[in-house]
């Protein structure tokens, strides 16, 4: 029922029993720990030229946070092993640039609690080179695990990320057109194509919106025994190997490697068979198990997101009535979705608080436009919004305009209602296939 550990601001729900996840299998300074080791040879251009897997006994000398590792490197205070690690990473970094995987630097919210479990701060996580070092080495090990098992003609639980569907690409193309940008659907769609598109956007606020739209166009990654590649990482074969304590897929890959490399060890008692490899039943069940752990991962991610939303709402519940700088992140016929720029908290601006006039929704252009005034609310517009409600139980936020002149940085001039053209057509200026918000659809 639990395919991975789940991380909340105040606790971790471990996949494995706590005696394993927090002690026996957890790396501690000065303590010996059994491990599966991935030995990589990395060329100067970042290509991994060979790999092998062994059992190992690991003793680390020190546990340091990402921020501390970054500080030591920046201050020239790092030990020799950390310096060598960074040097090897520079080679992997070049290989990653050559591979041109999808680069989406989207802000991640962090909820920091005090000793009493109360919210101390909500901040956006800073992305450091130290994070990239660990990430690139993990990717290299994950690729090696997949290719090693393929070379042994052994079963693999792949991490699969398929290219965007045509339906999502069409939606992205229509959205990009509202920025006067084009996406030709006849070409081969690659991660590098999206990267070049984002690189060409000079305006940072516009880039953030297009980046979010590119993210929404992607398919959801999943696990499976039949390889379909990893589009986002621009890799032909990819598996999860590096986190067997917190992801069941990694544990399956470890067990497959035990079989493939003949690493089975004797059981602790002579009357017990060795059990660390994959059984015949495990092999037969890989498709079903892959589906189950993919579903468990989706549930865990949803729970983590909803929990963060509740913490943000709790943090803001004492600030109802305050005005925040926000940006429109979604446009629907019933209102606007907006996010607080400094926190990432998302909420609804109901169409009823925008004014007494009727507003018409252009779904393709992602716009709400007032019938009489021509006031236009578009995806990406910045607004000064007053927080009207914050519900910690549901995580819901509700906003209202600061005043009638609260809009700043509108994207484009108002379109004259009733005009036939790129977006607005049909009776009373609304698209012919969009009914008024007061009627059933």
Structure description:
This protein is of the alpha+beta class and 441 residues long. It has two domains: 6-162 and 219-313, no CATH class; 320-429, Nucleic acid-binding proteins (OB fold (Dihydrolipoamide Acetyltransferase, E2P), Beta Barrel), CATH 2.40.50. It has ten helices and 17 strands. The protein has helices at 18-24, 66-74, 80-99, 129-151, 166-177, 191-199, 204-217, 248-260, 280-284, 286-316, and strands at 6-8, 11-13, 32-42, 48-59, 109-113, 119-124, 158-160, 222-224, 323-332, 335-340, 346-350, 359-362, 367-370, 376-378, 382-391, 396-401, 407-408. Strands 9, 10, 11, 15, 16 and 17 form a six-stranded antiparallel sheet that branches. Strands 12-13-14 form a three-stranded antiparallel sheet, with no helix packed on it. A two-stranded antiparallel ribbon has the order 1-2. A hairpin with a 5-residue loop joins strand 13 (367-370) and strand 14 (376-378).
